[in-house]
Amino acid sequence: MFSIAPGTIPAAVTTKGTPVPTCTRYAVVGAGWRASVFLRMAYLMPDRFEVAGVVTRRAEASAELESAWGVRTYRDVETLLTAERPDFVVLSVPWPVTPELTRQLVAAGVPVLAETPPAPDAEGLRALWHDVGARGLVQVAEQYALMPLHAARLEVVGSGLIGTPSSVLVSSTHQYHAVALMRRFLGVGREAVTVRAQTFAAELVDPITPTGWTHDTSPKPAGTTLASLDFGSGRMGRYDFTDNQWWNPLRPDHLVVRGSAGEIWDETVVRMVDEVTPMTSRLERASTGLGMNYEGLDLTHIALDGRVVFRNAFEGARLSDDDIGVAALLTHTGAWVRDEAEPPYPVAEACHDHLVSLAIGEAVESGGSVRVEHDLWG
Q1: In this structure, are strands 49-55 and 268-274 parallel, antiparallel, or unpaired?
Q2: CATH for 24-141?
Q3: Distance from C-alpha of 38 to C-alpha of 358, rounded to nearest angstrom
Q4: Of 61, 68, 288, 316, which one has the greatest count of Cβ atoms within 10 A?
Q5: Each residue's pLDDT tens digit, 172-190
Q6: What is the DSSP letter of 145?
Q7: pLDDT in tens, 344-363
Q8: What Rg do the C-alpha atoms of the chain give, in angstroms?
Q9: Can you tell me the distance from the alpha carbon of 137 to that of 274, in angstroms, rounded to the nearest whole number?
Q10: Which tens digits make up the pLDDT trace of 279-316?
Q11: Which residues in the chain are classed under CATH 3.40.50.720?
């Protein structure tokens, strides 16, 4: 997962020529794989991030976390908050637990960054919003738009290079993550949307899962959900997700943004450069550590036709794209808590996106269209 052995705290990481921002101090509730991502950020970049403590109820997990990451652990949130006052608390726990812990932390006046959707179903979303929405203390950990390639594409779209975006295809992640990306690329707010969806089954080899390589090359049934999301005013989202697509290298991720003057297809950008000349260019990743470069493998930037459209603010930490997104999210959340930035992904946005993702499932079940109107969160 990472090259630095646990127990060896690395030197401070700084981006070339870029001052290191204020250190963000957060606590983590949970001890699973996703929680370890937040611990790793502080482990690799102690000048940027500090883990105030980790809450886990299991003694075995507590001992492992303290040994591997050098963090303090607590058995419950109350004990953590008695001993520490972090900038915010990351919740990386199962869906059924998230709403109750969110309520507990908000009641204590502590900002929350919830790793999963804030509640598993529509009733749970509305109940949670009723209890905590007005406090403005809850963000949800949506890092996809902050990942390098998505951030570069958003910069291209925002520059107007492909005109006004009208449709976006997301075939990489699922549920509210995909909906959040669609709305971000289209510039759509929490507006009413009509959803239509179907699921298809086909044979597919599934060579790797979260537990590792299967060494099994025999095809097995896999479901693919296709959906259309009509946001109105000529704006449409297309949803295409196959079971285990996050891991399966035989179903790589794709993103297509179509605009009034061009389109982005994965790393390819097509647009007009004058009245009679369509031009095709590529988003080019630049990395150190290739060939005779001895700086170590690391993303430095992404460029389009010689213009940098994304620069890695965490160069030197040798992060994956997902980790870069998480690090950017933590940085943004810390700035929000200090009143230095707008909120990264408020619970109102997450409630809306998850409600739309639930509508995809409803449309599959009903075989008809499902309309999502404005809800309690506006």
Answers
A1: unpaired
A2: 3.40.50.720
A3: 27
A4: 316
A5: 999 999 999 999 999 999 9
A6: G
A7: 999 999 999 999 999 999 99
A8: 21
A9: 48
A10: 999 999 999 999 999 999 999 999 999 999 999 999 99
A11: 24-141
Tokens of 291: 């060939």
What stretches of 116-219 adopt beta strand conformation (E)? 138-140, 165-171, 193-204, 208-209, 212-213
Q: What count of other Cβ atoms lies within 10 Å of the Cβ of residue 107?
A: 12
The pLDDT, as a whole number, for residue 356 is: 98
pLDDT of residue 11: 39
Q: For residue 285, list its beta bridge partners.
A: 302
Cα 278 to chain centroid, rounded = 33
Overall fold of domain 144-320: Dihydrodipicolinate Reductase; domain 2 (3.30.360)
pTM score, two decimals? 0.93
Q: Which of 58, 8, 65 is nearest to 36 (CA)?
A: 65
Sign of the C-alpha dihedral computed for residues 306, 310, 313 and 317 taken in this order: negative
Q: What is the identity of the amino acid at 8?
A: T
The whole-angstrom distance between residue 24's C-alpha and the CA centroid of its chain comes to: 19
Q: How many residues does the chain have?
A: 378
Q: How far apart are CA 138 and CA 322, in angstroms?
A: 22
Q: Where in the chain is the domain with CATH 3.30.360?
A: 144-320
Residue 5: pLDDT band by 50, 70, 90 thresholds?
Answer: very low
3-state secondary structure of 175: helix
pLDDT score at 19: 64
Please report where in the chains the tokens 């921002």 appear, as a residue.
Answer: 21
